[in-house]
């Protein structure tokens, strides 16, 4: 009679040992309706911080490259709680993990039957990760993260929401970097003013990062 509503899997290479698994339980207030299907035309899209840090940290370690890049592993629950306590009209929340922002944005666009436009000049990427991706030809939009979210909020709440997130140490680089429109697909408004289609990652950019 127990319904499983969430789960996680791990790939273990047959070495045995001790594994600790955790689960969280709770209830959702009836007045709260946050879902991947709830993005609406006009919504502002907020990124809670710089992209690609975790992917780059793992990859530099695997390649034996010395760098100052650190993983972005972080708890996200407090930022969400602060937004809700601030009476922000939150429609959708998704963590940006495997496949990066490009993949997650495409999944959300399909779920809500909307079009997403991202602003290239507003998407936060640290200088050190930008340099690393330039050397290896990687795209920060398809790089994995472990402590970042994309959040769709009512446009009237966008500025306030960014302010709330920036007061949290894990959201100090939060920025409104896109919007939801009528239509389909995910597009990037480039620094040169062009518009290009953003496709989800094909294959695994960095297998088994978590």
Which structural class is indicated by helix and strand composition? alpha+beta
Count the beta strands: 7
Order of helices and strands: EHHEHEHEHEEE
Distance between the termini: 30 Å
The total of helices stands at 5
User: Which strand order does the major sheet show?
Assistant: 2-4-1-5-3-6-7
Strand content: 15-25%
**What's the overall geometry?**
globular
Helix content: 10-25%
- Mean pLDDT rating: 91
The residue ranges in which pLDDT falls below 50 over 5 or more consecutive positions are: none
The Cα radius of gyration reads 18 Å
Main beta-sheet strand count, sense and barrel state: 7 strands, mixed
Quick overview of this protein structure:
With 210 residues, this protein is of the alpha+beta class. The protein has helices at 53-63, 77-85, 100-112, 127-136, 158-166; strands spanning 44-47, 90-95, 115-119, 149-153, 175-181, 185-189, 195-197.
């Amino acid at each position: 009679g127990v319904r499983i509503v969430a789960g996680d899997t791990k790939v273990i290479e047959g070495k045995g040992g001790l594994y600790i698994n955790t689960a969280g339980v709770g209830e959702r207030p009836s007045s709260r309706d946050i879902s991947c299907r709830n993005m609406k035309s006009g919504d502002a899209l907020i990124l809670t911080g710089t992209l690609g840090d975790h992917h780059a940290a793992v990859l530099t370690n695997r390649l034996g490259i010395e760098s100052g890049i650190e993983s972005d592993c972080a708890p996200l629950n407090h930022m969400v709680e602060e937004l809700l306590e601030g009476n922000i009209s939150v429609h959708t929340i998704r963590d940006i993990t495997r496949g990066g922002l490009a993949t997650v944005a495409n999944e959300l666009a399909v779920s809500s039957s909307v079009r997403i436009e991202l602003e290239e000049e507003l998407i936060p990427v640290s200088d050190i990760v930008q340099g690393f991706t330039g050397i290896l030809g990687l795209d920060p939009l398809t790089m994995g993260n472990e402590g970042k979210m994309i959040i769709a909020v009512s446009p009237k709440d966008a500025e306030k929401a960014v302010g709330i997130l920036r007061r949290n140490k894990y959201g100090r680089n939060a920025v409104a970097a896109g919007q939801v429109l009528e239509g389909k697909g995910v597009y990037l408004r480039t620094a040169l003013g062009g518009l290009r289609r953003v496709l989800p990652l094909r294959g695994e950019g960095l297998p088994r990062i978590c």
